[in-house]
Protein 1
Amino acid sequence: MSVLKVENIHKSFDKTQVLKGIDFSLQKGEVLAIIGASGSGKTTLLRCLNFLETPQKGKIIVNDKVLFDADDKKLQSDEQIRKNRLHFGLVFQSFNLFPQYNVLKNIMLAEELLAKEQIKAVGEYNGCTDFKEAQEKIEQKAKDLLNKVGLSEKMDFYPYQLSGGQQQRVAIARALALNPHVLCFDEPTSALDPELTGEVLKVIKGLKSSDSTMVIVTHEIEFARDVADKVIFMADGVIVEEGTPQQVIENPQNERTQAFLSRFNQKF
């Protein structure tokens, strides 16, 4: 069973077609790397997956459940979209941490709001009928996630006190906090200096061994080759080439893929 199926996704802004029929699927624990030049539609695709943009055509299916169907308006209500977002975690290019909260609170906040809402609506959250009890569990999980990304000692720090690499690692922990079925990364190292890039890529690489299903938009071609199970090369809103890293990166068949990869002074 596929964790994620994307079928015929189209997205336009005014008269500009950005996505022109995107199809792919992922099994549990698989890592998909999406590569391509700026303007190819990579980030728009991630935003559609995370329900930050609404496609004009297509379906998004998670664990055999249709979360989005452009032809079914019932699946596009605000309440449904809020529920759908819980299936996905998104790590942005620019961290997007809340500056007014410390590291621990940044990780806890979304789940605290969800717990409060569910206890009010249905009387319990993850076996807890009391918000204070739920909050204690959420705090322990946040501390465990900070340990996972190597930042336990920074839990009381505020974002401005952290390096860019540390902020991005907090953002990864925050994205993991709600146990998403699919974790998405939008150029997670593009805002970082080269010396900080390695620490973030190391954390992402570590997640691969924990059975996380991931979609990573990246310009780090060597990282994509080493970590991904599948690679998609996008250009002009379509998938030009798809396959294993060995097929797409080391032995591309399409001329556009070949031309894109030739820009990188790396030998694969």
Note: The mean pLDDT is 93.
Protein 2
Amino acid sequence: MDQKVTPAADSTESATSPFVFLRRHLREYGILFALIAIMGFFQIATGGILLKPVNITNLILQNSYIVIMAIGMLMVIVCGHIDLSVGSVLGFVGALAAVMIVSWEMNYVLAAIICLATGALIGAAQGFWIAYYKIPSFIVTLAGMLVFKGLTLWLLAGQSIGPFPPNFQLIASGFIPDLFGAEGLNLFSLTIGVAVALGILVMAFRARAQHRKTGIVDEPFSFFIGKHVLIFGALVYLSYLMATFRGLPNVFIIMALLIAVYSFIAGRTTLGRRIYAIGGNEKAAKLSGINSERLTFLTFANMGMLAALAGLVFAARLNTATPKAGLAFELDVIAAVFIGGASMSGGVGTIVGAVVGAFIMGVMNNGMSILGIGIDWQQVIKGLVLLAAVIFDVLNKKKT
């Protein structure tokens, strides 16, 4: 029996051409190609400034809080909901951290733990009304957005509070030290980057081997090799660029850990599969025994915690808490998730796609700023890109 199964899997694999596979999985891979095309365009248009080590580092630091919140927002949208309060929660938590650390001189580690717990409680409070009382998430989180904007103004008394202690600032502005002591190149950071790229490559081959055993491989081997060689090369190259500047930022490590953990939860655990099932068809999920209320509640609590983490990162980067912190961030976060391939109706989307969507927004902001394009036209272009992503999602659904 084993001898018959393996050839069948191989024949199915070889029968699928790269072009047919790409057409079937355009939603997942199209966004990655879009990021490459956008980066290539701005690299040429800016005369090579985009991929300079200092600009790559700034690009990561500037978009870290958007990426962190996009991870949580992806889970919310996959569950079939939306959270409009994340920008206001970010600003409120940053203000709370400033009051505790700067005004009250509290230890920054203890203050950070309290801030994360506060964010989780805020998300849980909103999730409670959404999950158990079926109040639309749009209304609940819109109310939350207004409430926490007001509370931020009250907490800061309309003024900025700062600066933060140097150790707290390291969350967003610190870099991994070079343990090897090389000159002109952070060898330790480069080693970490290469190790991560190799780890992703090994896991991809292991996953493919497992899929072949069950006969569910439909990705052509040539496409599989080309895709992962491209990913490996891009990760090593970006690691090298950053290593020639100051190395990997601390917040980059935080982002990488979050991406790995949440990708595992979303794709490899029962919890993740149940969240996708709720977004796909909540009635069917409930009939199959899934506690949709509890999972929705936990999804919003998780979103609140990640918004709080983003608030700490943003405050540390600015080195101050301001009443306007987080203004309209929820729009960038939601746009990143939809551009990254998530469906408006729920049940579809990936963590990696949301992160890629966030970096598309970041590269566009960065590239247009380098080119001197005004903020007015930047907003217009970003709006059109978001509209195009949603139209693509609708048309793609009609085809299937």
Note: The longest helix spans residues 187-214.
Protein 3
Amino acid sequence: MKDIKRIVLTGGPCAGKTTALVRVIEHFSSLGYKVFTIPEVPTMFTQSGMDYLTKNRDFFYEGEKATLEIQLALEDKFMRMAETCEEPCVIVCDRGAMDISAYMKPEMWEEITHAVGTSTTELRDHRYDAVLHLVSAADGAEQFYTTSNNASRNEKADEEGLQIARMLDKKVIEAWTGHSHLRVINNHEDFDAKINRVLKEISNVLGLPQPIEEERKYLVEVTDEIPYAIESDITQTYLVAEPGCEVRLRRHGWNGKFVNVHTTKKRISDKEQLETERQVSNNLYQSLLQQADPYRLTIHKIRKSFIWKGQFFELDSFISPHPGMMILETKGITEGEDVRFPDFIRVIKDITGDSSYYNYNLALRG
């Protein structure tokens, strides 16, 4: 059966999705891919008369239910079309099914998914190969925030509108939290850097070799509460692998839910590596644990993910090994760009590029 990747581009208001979609089509078409794009269904509905701010519950319910039904129908139809193509295909969705859940109470979302014959687990964990969340310009790039390119946008370019946009941005991330390939794309002073990160992440999903890049990492202390952080529990086991290849089995838990991900990183040259990820069932997870590398301990850590001034951070607090150690990692900070450290973080040491702090090496016994 043809391997067709389905990828969601999402984010808060004024995140750059429209521009990103244009570049995605241009870039991957030039590489020989047939690129299908699914339009943003809520915008279609708004332009057709739907009022998502209505106080009429029945109208809102029917509108949101129809939004989900049309979203899924469009994706399914384009998947069937892609299966008939001779060239490799990729389907890029301008928002996905879980975005809809961010705009209503959980009780209504459960009611709607049940009526449509699906569930949060099916839509979030199994329907899409990757979810790329572009951070709203309202968080860290306020000077670029505008409503002029989307007449249906309700979050205006004043302080109240910016606050609403930031809140929606975080609610959308929360809706997708748990997907095995959720990536948050920072704001940058140079917007092209944001778009290039999107192209890189999609290339990764398509199995195209990528340049080896070092994410910024720091040993830190936390001096105050972290606002709006998403907390998760991570258990990470390294498996026996061939030379030049790193194989990791990770169980990612949050709010009583768990996702298992098998990741393989293979260097194909001094400057490039190939990374593949796949979600695995609980039974396969337990079976794969039998292949654990006997020279490495299992890593257990608590992760707090958050956005600060448009930049995405992950703070790992190690439980074992190295209990008490905290490592702050940035995502997608370009070379020469300053890290906007939160005021509740105290940096002890810059460990970027220090291989002794790679998780693979921290897991070594003795």
Note: DSSP finds ten helices and 15 strands in the chain.
Protein 4
Amino acid sequence: MNKNSDPVSRLCVIIPTYNNAATLQQVVMDAAEYCKDIIVVNDGSTDDTKAVLERLPNTVTIVSYNKNKGKGHALVAGFRKAKELAFTHAITMDADGQHFASDIPTLIKASESNPEGIIVGSRNLTEDNMPRQNTFANKFSNFWFRLQTLVNLPDTQSGFRLYCLSALRGLSFITSRYEAELELLVFAAWAGTDVTSVPIRVYYPPEGERVSHFRPIYDFTRISILNTILCILAIIYGYPRMALRKLRLITS
């Protein structure tokens, strides 16, 4: 039975996973306590994920492909499946167990006042065991997002979010790796989508127990290239579009 008093009539939870066999089943079962509709996207896992998926209830929708294509690709695949199944909103959660499913009602509550927007779960970056590289990457990302959209968010790297699916723009152009989550927010903000945040909890296991696919040099390089492109697009497309929208509000 769904625990939340969900104001969104068609809500699902999307969980992209790559080699999270040790935590995936518990994440799915925890999420199912708060939302009965779950979509798991198996992004070419090479561990025991297939066996875990076979143990999940048949009410869980599974999207699976053999070759790892990156978190961005997995998210887009999940969004497209959600739209295909006529969901209007989707919560995204990581499969590594860092998010608390009990925070799902917090995101849903925030959507009551922003039903057509995007709600980002904002982590406490001073949390125990928070990896230093995560803190740096988040501050780095926050700076560029604020520059590109003029919107201030405390955590642009959080994967725990509630999306109004109709607010998503440019899915065909979204990059395939970690930087995709920033790109989704930028395009949405340029389109006039209200992007807000709510505080959430986060759990990071001790360093020896973490499963991370983040490659600092490679992924920072990709993020830097993306931000360069987005800054150029902000000047020729994003800023003019935001200014035109503000002018229309003033004159209407």
Note: DSSP finds seven helices and seven strands in the chain.
